[in-house]
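Work Package 4 report. The design task specified in the project plan requires that, given a folded chain encoded as structure tokens, an amino acid be chosen for each position. We show below one input record used in the internal validation round.
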């Protein structure tokens, strides 16, 4: 790796923890030899540390909120609340509090993305990252007998690798990646210049099930086999991506 504009982009991604395993190791090797990039890394980290300093942030005094609320009520012409007598006031307050908590819980639940949605976003992010960093493959080869043994010792499982050139989906190579908190094998296929990442990672039955999604214009298809999860992602149209998945499932 030489120092150029691409290296600067990768350095920012390295500081933010956005690189895959292979790229991170490559960057660390480069940093151990390049004094300029090592100095840039130290500067980036020093800046992040300085910005995180609590002394840079102003904490409003406790009475400010009460004063602002009073001014807002006055401006809106809202009269002060009349206290309810005795236990009736307490009961009304308790009911209002319970309703507020219930409403908050319903809103929070409805807005929280599902496990499948979060996984689809992570899959697309890994796909886009491989394209932006120009790092589709660690082992560029159309030979499945070259790609499959390359993963030995790099992941704790043996991914099935198939060449689908006869079906119009030639194997381009493979690389290491990281999906759903696990090291994953990324198998790269191609269809009329469209790059297709097929991620394979071990997972128990509690993982996300099969499904399809469109995230930021990229099509995603997930499926499972006992102990293993798969995901195919590409900007290729969904019909042809389904065809690839059917070929892989045969």
């Amino acid at each position: 790796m030489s120092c150029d504009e691409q290296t600067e982009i990768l350095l920012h991604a390295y500081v933010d923890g956005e690189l895959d395993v292979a790229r991170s190791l490559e960057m660390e090797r480069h940093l151990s030899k390049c004094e300029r990039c090592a100095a840039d890394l130290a500067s980036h980290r020093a800046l992040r540390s300085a910005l995180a300093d609590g002394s840079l942030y102003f904490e409003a005094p406790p009475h400010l909120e009460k004063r602002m609320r009073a001014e807002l009520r006055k401006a809106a012409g809202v009269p002060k609340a009349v206290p309810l007598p005795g236990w009736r006031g307490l009961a009304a307050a308790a009911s209002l509090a319970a309703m507020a908590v219930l409403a908050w819980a319903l809103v929070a639940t409805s807005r929280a993305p599902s496990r499948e949605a979060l996984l689809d976003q992570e899959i697309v992010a890994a796909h886009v990252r491989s394209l932006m960093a120009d790092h589709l493959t660690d082992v560029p080869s159309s030979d499945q007998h070259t790609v499959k043994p390359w993963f030995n010792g790099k992941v704790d499982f043996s991914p099935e690798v198939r060449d689908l050139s006869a079906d119009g989906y030639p194997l381009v190579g493979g690389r290491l990646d990281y999906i759903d908190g696990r090291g994953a094998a990324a198998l790269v296929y191609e269809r009329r210049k469209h790059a297709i990442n097929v991620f394979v990672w071990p997972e128990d039955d509690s993982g996300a099930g099969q499904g399809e999604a469109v995230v930021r214009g990229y099509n995603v298809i997930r499926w499972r086999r006992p102990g293993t999860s798969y995901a195919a992602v590409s900007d290729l149209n969904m019909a042809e991506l389904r065809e690839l998945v059917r070929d892989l499932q045969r």
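The chain has a mean pLDDT of 83. Validation will be extended to a larger panel in the next phase.
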